[in-house]
Amino acid sequence: MSDDAFEAAYGRPAELAWHAPGRVNIIGEHTDYNDGFALPAALPLGVTAQVAARDDGVIRASSVQDDDAVTVPIVDLAPGSVQGWAGYVVGVIWAFREAGHHMPGLDIVVDGSVPIGSGLSSSAALECAVAGAVDDLFGLGSTPADLITVARRAENDYVGVPTGALDQSASVLCREAEALFIDFRSMDTRRVPLDLDGAGLRLLVIDTQARHQLADGEYAKRRAECARAAELLGVPMLRDIDDDGLAGALERLTDPVLRRRARHIVTENARTLQTVRVLEGQGDPRAIGALLLASHVSLRDDFEVSCRELDLAVSTAMDTGAHGARMTGGGFGGSAIALVDDTDTDAVTDAVQGAFAEAELTAPVIFAMQPARGAHRCDE
Ligand code: GAF
């Protein structure tokens, strides 16, 4: 983003800017709120937040993508008091204030390139860019874990979407050319090499244009079902059931819906660990393809969070030679990923476009990605 947007909005230069990325999740879906495992990577798309301090207790926020600017006294902020994109921005200020930090006032301009509702974490990118910029502007000394907490509070408690920690952790902690293994019980993370170029591979992101909306109740329903299954099984979280214990656990769950939900979480955790083993073993990354596809089938049939567009993207990519493909993110629309040989990139892209056209669906947006850098100050 050029300084012009800030100057145009507020008639003075910004003091500093932070960028935070969206993410894809390579594998480990809906596992975060079950204390399980995931393996995200940062997108080369994200949000930049430019900021400058004020001393009158007011926050003014504007967006390059949206004409509706907001001006609010910080003292008036309460969960849900500002709606739309600006809610994610002021939600971060609210969360810093709730954490005991003095917020003197500020002007913010945000500029985002992650498509909204695409399942690529546009909201986490927005929260994390603002959190990094505000922390830096006021010298709050937050650790990466603090930034993740503040960004999550904005999402969960201010905006009111009951997500886990996946998206904000990925946006803050991911690194270039790597995926990030996260254990959501300990919050330990480990960098996992993901040199796709070196292996002659591309990770295609297929934004199906079917817009997902996590706030519509289905996501919260899945969370409640997982919690109920764990309760019936007498464990704190479904993470506490492993592959060996799965058959016995499934026998004890009489409700077929809860049985399917539990099976997804237990098998998805096992697939995530296996994916990390393959990538850390420095073997051919193509070997994770079967795990990606198995993850999609499990999300489609057991967790029931896929949709027609995601299934079509995955099956077409697989039919055209992808090594693996799956929906990524929360589901109910959004994006899929496909692991393809770089020589097959055009063929897979054309085939998916063709299949969507034939099915009279909106044309998907498809691009190849390399894992990018997590949240950082723009001049560093
Ligand atoms: C969404 C949520 F925000 C994450 O916390 C995670 O649960 C994901 O869906 C599914 O893995 O992105």
From TrEMBL:
Binding-site list for Mg(2+): 123, 155
List the catalytic activities from the record.
alpha-D-galactose + ATP = alpha-D-galactose 1-phosphate + ADP + H(+)
Q: Which residues bind ATP?
A: 63, 117-123
Q: Pathway it acts in?
A: Carbohydrate metabolism; galactose metabolism
Q: Name one GO biological process term.
A: galactose metabolic process
Q: What is the enzyme's main class?
A: transferase
* Molecular-function GO terms, alphabetical: ATP binding; galactokinase activity; magnesium ion binding
Which coarse location class applies to the principal site listed for this UniProt protein?
cytoplasm
**Alphabetically ordered keywords of this record:** ATP-binding, Carbohydrate metabolism, Cytoplasm, Galactose metabolism, Kinase, Magnesium, Metal-binding, Nucleotide-binding, Transferase
Q: Which residues does substrate bind?
A: 29-32, 219
Q: Cellular location of this protein?
A: Cytoplasm
- Where does the record place the Galactokinase N-terminal domain? 5-52
EC code = 2.7.1.6
Q: What does this protein do?
A: Catalyzes the transfer of the gamma-phosphate of ATP to D-galactose to form alpha-D-galactose-1-phosphate (Gal-1-P).
Protein name, entry field: Galactokinase
Q: Name the lineage.
A: Bacteria, Bacillati, Actinomycetota, Actinomycetes, Micrococcales
